[in-house]
Amino acid sequence: MKKSLASLLAGIVALGSFASVGAAAESNDPSNSGELFTSSSPISLTDQAWKAPAGANPEDKVWGYLESVKGNLSLSAKDNVRSKFQITEQKTNVKTGSQHYRLSQYISGIPVYGADQTLHIDKSGNVTSLLGSVVEDVYQSIPQPLIQLKTISGTEAISAATHDATLTYGLLGESQIAPAAQLYYFIVEGEPKLAYKTEVNVLEPEPLRIRYFISAEDGSVLFKYNILEDLTGTGTGVNGDTKTFETRLSGSTYQLYDSTRGKGIATYTAKNRTSLPGTLLTSSSNVWTDKAAVDAHAYAEKTYDYYLQHFGRNSLDNNGLQIRSTVHYYTSYNNAFWNGTQIVFGDGDGVTFKELSGDLDVVGHELTHGVTENTANLEYYGEPGALNESFSDIIGNSIEGDNWLIGDDVYTPGVAGDALRSLANPPLYNQPDKYSNRYTGTSDNGGVHTNSGINNKAFYLAAQGGTFNGVTVTGIGREDAVQIYYNALVYYLTTSSNFSAARTAVIQSATELFGAGSAQVAAVTQAYNAVGVH
Q1: What ranges do the domains of the chain cover?
Q2: pLDDT of 301-359, one tens digit each?
Q3: Residues facing residue 215 across a β-bridge
Q4: Could you tell me which residues are beta bridge partners of residue 288?
Q5: What kind of fold does domain 382-530 have according to CATH?
Q6: In whole angstroms, what is the distance from residue 45 CA to residue 64 CA?
Q7: pLDDT (tens digit, 9 = 90+) per residue, 407-430?
Q8: Do the domains spanning 146-226 and 382-530 agree at the CATH topology level?
Q9: Which amino acids are annotated catalytic?
């Protein structure tokens, strides 16, 4: 009963840390013996627009199109697509008039994990593309609904995950996000298994955000991985510059709280401990001396403003989500991370990093993980995880916009001109810039920080231009490039998107924004040719 995951522009989910310094040991965890979303075969449904029947409403167009491509969806002529797929989200791009749908494949009313799709209808009402993943032949070969094999509850699955994490890390602290368990069909070595997806998210004994897939049949761990890899007042920032920012007066005390953006931007201190969010920072005057806090607060405002001004996006969830930042986390902590609810900054050890909030790249990078979680939700493992990291690098770097380096303002403070990553020259910091040179081991969640260099290089070439790997790209400028990549992230990519899927998503995004024969489409196409992604 082997199943393969067929990609409709293939791709793998979601959040990470800023830093991955040094080589990690290869994983020997038996629950992680394979990759997520294996046996993929790319399918491109983008060649020509599908002409919708006259008078059909938008959802009827979705179902009509899916009926017309049943052969690509591993369905027989007698199958009803409405019973095999569900629409999970619909958005309209106000810039282009295009409508974008997210769908998921279902078996007996239960979603298939990673089998997500995006479908796109242009302003004329015609379907232009379908991207994502489906599980092949699963309907014909499952003899009975696996729901009959379910013997444990979601609560028991949460307990199983907690028990496993406790055995590995020791006694766990308080959960940072209330544990929940969602039932899926999860593909393990080609076989569909009924499984609960849940998460262990704690700060003690160390920051952990471990995603678990627990068998609904016997409570065993089918797969797991840590998606939290180690990694208008005035004030002076980490690098000595003076900043202005919004604060709030409460009685006679000023608070590092901005109530003018979305549902607020609030900055806390952990006081070198590990409790989050910590204590809201206050001052008797509106002149702030905590350098790490000044930068965290001011750069969160800049990131919010960038998303609003460039993309029309209201905070990370496009609904004004409050942005919370905590500085002075633990002692000499060499990382910053997004934990699903807020951003956290260490002070660094003064050698590898100084205060990590002191770089706009870092703040923009981490907050973009929050945007990704609310849109494409790219799996933080393997190629989708590398794309997750890359989109955080691309948008974080574009917010700062003064060079092509990541982390240069806080990384190795004793080494002039050093950085953590370079979009222009990934190999300078031990990243590949061609798909043929990608890392294929299991360290770093399958190379999420390493292989991000491939997509970063493609973005750089599209924006800046140049000749690379024998391919010449005429640059379109950073602004057009970042608009294309943001549009691809928000509307086209899915949980399981790989590099091939990213190429098609970016090309389709450029086509939507600028037209099929545009210089922008030519640039992004040539950029992916140059880095060897097809």
Answers
A1: 5-141, 146-226, 233-333, 382-530
A2: 999 999 999 999 999 999 999 999 999 999 999 999 999 999 999 999 999 999 999 99
A3: 195
A4: 235
A5: Neutral Protease; domain 2 (1.10.390)
A6: 15
A7: 999 999 999 999 999 999 999 999
A8: no
A9: 366, 449
Tokens for 161? 């995950």
Q: What is the SS3 assignment for 132?
A: strand
Angle of the 499-514 helix axis to the 452-464 helix axis, nearest 10: 30
Is 242 exposed, middle or buried (CB count within 10 Å of its CB: 0-12, 13-18, 19+)? exposed
Cβ contact 475:461 at 8 Å: yes
What span, in angstroms and rounded, lies between the C-alpha atoms of 227 and 388? 11
Give the predicted TM-score (pTM) of the model. 0.82
| CATH number attached to the domain at 233-333 | 3.10.170.10
State the Cα–Cα distance between residues 333 and 370, nearest whole angstrom.
Answer: 21
User: Which CATH architecture best describes the domain 146-226?
Assistant: Roll (3.10)
State how far the Cα of 316 lies from the Cα of 260, in Å rounded to an integer.
16
User: Closest Cα partner for 494 from 397, 383, 392?
Assistant: 383
- C-alpha angle with apex 507: 505 to 508, nearest 5 degrees? 65
Rounded Cα–Cα distance for residues 306 and 365 (Å): 13
What single DSSP character describes residue 131?
E
CB 376 within 8 A of CB 489: yes
Nearest CA to 382 out of 297, 321, 440, 462 is that of 440
Question: What residues contact residue 503 under an 8 Å CB cut-off, 6+ apart?
Answer: 458, 528, 533, 534
